[in-house]
Specification:
Blueprint lengths: L2 E5 L2 E4 L4 E8 L7 E7 L6 E6 L6 E3 L7 E6 L4 E6 L8 E8 L17 E2 L3 E6 L1
Parallel strand pairs: 2-11
Antiparallel strand pairs: 1-3, 3-8, 4-5, 4-9, 5-6, 7-8, 9-10, 9-11
């Protein structure tokens, strides 16, 4: 069992940046493929970015490409999401998720049901 805790959310003006962190306890994150998802009020949870256990593979939602960067530091047992050029439509609760084995050849990494462990989320609010 792995416990995930997100941090780094907050209120930022449009065009600003935030860096979200996902810290793990219970097990080492180096065994897990990781994803970031977000859920805005009244909307379904959607995929943002994912990274393989080694960090060698990354995937992004179209809305995140060119603005967000996912990375990981297995030595620190954390996964990061650097978000730049934030827009009001990025406002949501951001959650990280973990999956030990994940198929990267299809879009399974973007499916919420593919992940076994979830954090509680951190609120990101972008003002216009």
């Amino acid at each position: 069992q792995v416990q995930l805790v997100e941090s780094g959310g907050g209120l930022v003006q449009a065009g600003g940046s935030l860096r979200l962190s996902c810290a793990a306890s219970g097990r080492t994150l180096s065994k897990y493929n990781m994803g970031w998802f977000r859920q805005a009020p009244g909307k379904e949870r959607e995929f943002v970015a994912a990274i393989s256990w080694s960090g060698g593979i990354t995937r992004y939602a179209d809305s995140a490409k060119g603005r967000f960067t996912i990375s990981r530091d297995n030595a620190k047992n954390t996964v990061l999401l650097q978000m730049n050029s934030l827009k009001p439509e990025d406002t949501a609760i951001y959650s990280c998720a973990a999956k030990e084995e994940l198929t990267w050849s299809r879009n399974i990494y973007s499916d919420t049901s593919a992940y076994d462990y979830w954090g509680q989320g951190t609120q990101v609010t972008v003002s216009s």
